[in-house]
Amino acid sequence: MKINTICCLGAGYVGGPTMALIAAKCPHLKVIVADLNERRIAAWNSDTLPVYEPDLDKVVAEARGRNLHFTTDIRGAIVEAEMVFVSVGTPTKSYGIGAGRAADLCYIESAARTIAEVSQGHKIIVEKSTIPVKTASAIKTILEANSSPSATFEVLSNPEFLAEGTAIEDLEDPDRILIGGENTPGGHLAVEALASIYANWVPRERIITTNLWSSELSKIVANAFLSQRISSINSISALCEATGADVKEVARAIGMDQRIGPRFLRASVGFGGSCFQKDLLNLVYLCESFHLPEVAEYWSQVVKINDWQKSRFVGRIVRTLFNTVTNKRIAVLGFAFKKDTNDTRETAAINVCRDLLRERARIAVYDPQVTADGIRQELLAAGVEPALLDSHLEICPDAYAASEGAHALAVLTEWDEFAALDFPRIHTLMVKPAFVFDGRAILPHDELQVLGFECFTIGKGL
Ligand code: NAD
Ligand code: UGA
């Protein structure tokens, strides 16, 4: 099947970068990215992209206007494309059955209904969003029940494994591309059509094909295993702090065992991001739905340890600052859920700042990429009263402004620039004793101690 035009519904952190890279690697393909959100599309068409990712601007600049187009004309995009990617959000459901655990599939369903409404002829529908196992079957039912008789569909699962902050690198050189399809002649043709797009830059042996359900489930399981490693090392960070061991040394020692491997063993103030917790909760819900309570309980522990790690960090700050932070200024360095992104969804910084504000601390936040409005909105959504934000939250233009008059400095995101700050200057600016709480274990602790800082490091202690 010859594909000339593809479109993607959803111009978010996945849809935008993924389609931009496909357009850059496949100049012969027309790539249309469509979204309901007019502001987002306007930003994709401007010099200030809505997503911050290293090198994303270069990839967009190469293809935009040539074979990459951003639009709000969703119907027009679907009509023109032979292959439609669905990359809309699948957040945790906040209401009704499964609230707080199940994935909210309302955006997926609405995308499927729009596709059905306007389609003629044959189209391949590609699930790019992370969805519960068996969603392809629901999509197919909606498509077939609502489309014109001339329309036919093949539904594929093609989950995305990119991580934010390294999206372009991950898309250019993926560990694998996973494509799930039906075991029918039409399914095989559709899988091959999609595989041949990736084959423009990904070696064939890294493009793996499976059945639909294995593909859908593999995505959630990959995120579950990755987040489990972080909760595992974070649980050990508490034991290290209690015993005098150093979690970095433990991670290094165990990571050299090839069966364990060195990656994803960085203890932190807790994992964040839009997906780990959402996908874990969804896995727990799936297991419960399939009457597997022991499996559900096993995976729910990964979320519990993560929540505990975030509140443990706040407890440590309050205890160390002589059991009161009331009206003490605390410089918070980093609000994004990891470095090299402006994304704040589920960032550990939300919990830490919220809980410190509830203790009536005065918070001075600096993040190189997150906007003041973004920080305020996250804290409002987390239930912090607007009056408390007005009186106790300050957003600062740099780490030095945040440190001025601060009793403590807390590192919540591992931005590279934080390890290279002028610490003698910061020490001078701060109230003494000057406390540092390094929630990412990235600062030069020996230098800090010589300068007179009181230093707490996650997984190492005071
Ligand atoms: P996002 O919220 O950044 O973007 C989703 C976009 O979809 C929004 O801009 C929204 O306006 C748009 N949208 C909603 N309904 C629409 C419709 N009917 N038609 C057109 N547009 C519509 O979300 P994201 O971070 O890009 O994630 C998308 C999916 O990819 C999720 O399922 C997520 O789990 C998965 N995923 C995300 C990442 C990541 O790093 N963020 C990585 C892998 C997978
Ligand atoms: C994660 C996965 O890594 C991607 O493969 C997946 O596609 C994506 O989720 C998704 O489905 O959304 P992402 O959340 O963007 O990617 O970023 P990660 O690098 O995985 O980091 C997630 C969180 O874990 C961050 O808060 C990070 O700081 C934290 N982390 C990561 C640690 O605390 N320690 C580590 O060793 C690694």
Explain this structure to me?
With 462 residues, the chain is an alpha/beta fold. The chain is built from 19 helices and 14 strands. The chain has a 6-stranded parallel β-sheet with strand order 3-2-1-4-5-6, with helices on both faces. The chain has a 6-stranded parallel β-sheet with strand order 11-10-9-12-13-14, with helices on both faces. A two-stranded parallel sheet has the order 7-8. The N and C termini lie far apart (63 Å). The model has no long low-confidence stretch (mean pLDDT 97). The structure holds nicotinamide-adenine-dinucleotide and uridine-5'-diphosphate-glucuronic acid. Nicotinamide-adenine-dinucleotide binds next to helix 5.
Keywords:
46% helix, alpha/beta, binds nicotinamide-adenine-dinucleotide, six-stranded parallel sheet
Report on the biggest sheet. Answer: 6 strands, parallel
Strands of the biggest beta sheet: in what spatial order?
3-2-1-4-5-6
**Straight-line distance between termini:** 63 Å
- Structure class: alpha/beta
Evaluate the radius of gyration: 24 Å
Bound molecules: nicotinamide-adenine-dinucleotide, uridine-5'-diphosphate-glucuronic acid
Strand content: 5-15%
- Count of helical stretches: 19
- Flag low-confidence runs: none
Please give the structural blueprint.
Layout: E1 5-9, H1 15-25, E2 30-34, H2 38-44, H3 56-63, E3 68-71, H4 74-80, E4 83-86, H5 106-118, E5 122-127, H6 135-146, E6 152-157, H7 167-172, E7 177-181, H8 185-198, E8 207-211, H9 212-243, H10 247-255, H11 276-289, H12 293-320, E9 329-333, H13 348-358, E10 362-366, H14 372-381, H15 386-392, E11 393-395, H16 399-403, E12 408-411, H17 416-419, H18 423-429, E13 435-438, H19 445-451, E14 454-457
The protein binds nicotinamide-adenine-dinucleotide and uridine-5'-diphosphate-glucuronic acid.
